[in-house]
């Protein structure tokens, strides 16, 4: 029987705490632990690929600001580490919603991305948009200021959720190459470990900015890659699903027959680099699924040709959203796919999306979902 | 000893029950009390005052002896009743949010 000796740990961040969902390789029965950090917003929890017991969590609140929590036992116990995120040098200014200039001001950590090889190295994507790095397990943080110092920085502006750096992709084939995305500045890439960055938005077309093909200003919602083919990127933009075959140097649209190409999440099958998943959302003004039907769409052709996946998902009266960090895959065979909703459900498919079941139905609004495949 | 009452989330974070008792160096003021608090409970750094501006977070209030001290200068001496331990220095999370 496949996967009998393996297990899965799903790390869920919500508006009111973190939850850890565990199962064996069959992914039929689940244990739920939590809430951890009850009452706090948990934007993201992620485990180290180099040590699955090492987890990092971003914990924040409007009352008490930002905390970073670290676990060394797979989420059973946690210790707060350093929470001091100070911009390098004079912070400078960026665009505010009304076109005025506003100083950079740290608000929260949206995304934590542990190194692929070192459990003590972890990157943090923050609002107002910047990237920080810790090389000591979160005990201290230093900004990779070359990103914010890119000449376009004063032209960056917040999206509706704030000016957040929400996506960090580490290239498994090249430790010096990192991709990031910012709402609403766009995607950027470094090829020198974060010293210098350049925008990679050529081919994006956004009608909500004065120049639809501008170098920056695009509201990129999420980027995904398959680790075997890191120069191929998939993007869910505010509107449009996009693909790049040259590490972001150029993009082309692959929305194809999707019922709407607005959405937040996008992810790639663990074993099939051309199989990708999105959750279409009706529009930027109506953040819920079209027709009240929650559906995942899967393309087995790297985009353009999409099939509806609805078995086990609500067929009517469903008006939840699926936020940008709230989809993940495991690497079992068959590939498991998971996503969480603002209604508090976490859905899982143990057969690459063919059938879905809710692991839990009534959590606080889900902000993020990550998966660890355990051996 | 200065008695300090923390909001629930900070008691959980600091792993304390009830009030915190602090020795404060020199004049007891909101600033020196929070300095002493952060020395004893380093995990609270940044949760009461912003790391950069050192201003107290906007949704927190400082109360003592039925007075709101939140808008006093941070080096204003605390009331005698707080110095004697008769009354606590209260750090309160404002009623806001959901």
Descriptive notes:
The complex is a heterodimer of chains A (375) and B (98). The model of chain A has no long low-confidence stretch (mean pLDDT 96). Chain A has one helix spanning 145-148, and strands at 7-14, 17-24, 31-36, 41-47, 55-61, 65-71, 79-81, 93-95, 101-103, 108-114, 122-127, 130-134, 142-143, 164-170, 178-183, 186-190, 198-199, 220-225, 233-237, 241-244, 252-253, 262-268, 276-281, 296-299, 307-309, 327-329, 337-340, 346-349, 357-360, 366-374. Chain A is globular and about 50 Å long. Helix content of chain A is 1%, strand content 41%. Chain A is mainly beta and 375 residues long. The relative contact order of chain A is 0.13. In chain A, the strands form 8 sheets. Chain A has a 4-stranded antiparallel sheet, with no helix packed on it. Chain B is 22% helix and 19% strand. In chain B, strand 3 and strand 4 (67-68) form a beta hairpin. The mean pLDDT of chain B is 94. The longest helix of chain B is centred in the middle third of the chain and has 11 residues, at 30-40. Chain B has a single domain (2-93), classed as Ubiquitin-like (UB roll). A 5-stranded mixed sheet of chain B has the order 2-1-5-3-4, with helices on one face. Chain B has 98 residues and is α+β, with helices and mostly antiparallel strands. Chain B has helices at residues 8-14, 30-40, 80-83; strands at residues 2-5, 20-22, 60-64, 67-68, 89-93. The A-B interface holds A 39-40, 61-67, 80, 83-86, 106 and B 7-10, 13, 43, 45-48, 50-52, 57, 59-60, 93-94, 96-97.
Layout of SSEs?
The complex is a heterodimer of chains A (375) and B (98).
Chain A (H helix, E strand, L loop, with lengths): L6 E8 L2 E8 L6 E6 L4 E7 L7 E7 L3 E7 L7 E3 L11 E3 L5 E3 L4 E7 L7 E6 L2 E5 L7 E2 L1 H4 L15 E7 L7 E6 L2 E5 L7 E2 L20 E6 L7 E5 L3 E4 L7 E2 L8 E7 L7 E6 L14 E4 L7 E3 L17 E3 L7 E4 L5 E4 L7 E4 L5 E9 L1
Antiparallel strand pairs in A: 1-2, 1-30, 2-3, 4-5, 5-6, 6-7, 8-9, 10-11, 11-12, 12-13, 14-15, 15-16, 16-17, 18-19, 19-20, 20-21, 22-23, 23-24, 24-25, 26-27, 27-28, 28-29
Chain B lengths: L1 E4 L2 H7 L5 E3 L7 H11 L19 E5 L2 E2 L11 H4 L5 E5 L5
Parallel strand pairs in B: 1-5
Antiparallel strand pairs in B: 1-2, 3-4, 3-5
């Amino acid at each position: 029987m496949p996967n009998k000796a393996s297990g899965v740990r799903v790390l869920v961040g919500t508006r009111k705490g973190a939850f850890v969902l565990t199962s064996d390789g069959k992914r039929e029965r689940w244990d739920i632990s939590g809430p951890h950090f009850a009452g706090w917003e948990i934007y993201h929890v992620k485990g180290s690929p180099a040590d699955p017991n090492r987890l990092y969590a971003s914990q924040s609140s409007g009352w008490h600001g930002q905390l970073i929590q670290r676990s060394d036992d797979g989420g059973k116990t946690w210790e707060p580490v350093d929470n001091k995120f100070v911009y390098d040098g004079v912070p400078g200014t960026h665009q505010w919603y009304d076109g005025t200039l506003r100083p950079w001001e740290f608000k929260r950590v949206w995304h934590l991305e542990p190194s692929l090889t070192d459990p003590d190295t972890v990157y943090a994507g923050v609002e107002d948009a910047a990237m920080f790095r810790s090389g000591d397990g979160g005990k201290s943080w230093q900004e990779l200021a070359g990103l914010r110092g890119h000449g376009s920085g004063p032209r960056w502006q917040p999206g509706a959720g704030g000016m957040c750096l929400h996506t960090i992709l580490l290239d498994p084939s090249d430790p010096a190459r990192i991709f990031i995305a910012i709402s609403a500045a766009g995607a950027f890439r470094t090829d020198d470990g974060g010293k210098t960055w350049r925008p990679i938005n050529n081919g994006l077309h956004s009608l909500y900015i004065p120049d639809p093909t501008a170098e920056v200003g695009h509201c990129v919602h999420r980027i995904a890659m398959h680790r075997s083919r890191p120069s191929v990127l998939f993007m869910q933009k505010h509107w449009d699903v996009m693909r790049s075959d040259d590490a972001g140097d150029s993009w082309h649209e692959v929305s194809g027959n999707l019922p709407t190409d607005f959405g937040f999440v996008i992810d790639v099958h663990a074993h099939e680099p051309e199989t990708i998943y999105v959750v279409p959302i009706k529009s930027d003004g109506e953040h819920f699924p079209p027709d009240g039907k929650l559906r995942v769409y899967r393309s087995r052709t790297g985009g353009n040709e999409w099939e509806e996946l609805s078995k086990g998902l609500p067929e009517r009266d469903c008006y939840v959203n699926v936020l940008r960090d709230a989809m993940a895959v495991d690497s079992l065979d068959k590939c498991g796919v998971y996503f969480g909703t603002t209604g508090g459900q976490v859905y899982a498919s143990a057969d690459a999306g063919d059938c879905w079941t809710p692991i839990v139905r009534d959590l606080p609004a889900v902000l993020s979902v990550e998966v660890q495949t355990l051996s | 000893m200065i008695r300090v009452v923390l909001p629930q989330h900070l008691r959980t974070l600091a792993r304390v029950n009830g009030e915190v008792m602090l020795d404060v160096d020199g004049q007891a003021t909101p600033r020196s009390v929070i300095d002493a608090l952060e020395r004893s409970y380093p995990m609270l750094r940044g949760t009461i005052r912003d790391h950069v501006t050192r201003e107290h977070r906007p949704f927190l209030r400082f109360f003592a002896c039925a007075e709101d001290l939140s808008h006093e200068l941070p080096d204003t001496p605390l009331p005698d009743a707080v110095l004697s331990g008769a009354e606590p220095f209260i750090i309160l999370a404002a009623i806001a949010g959901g």
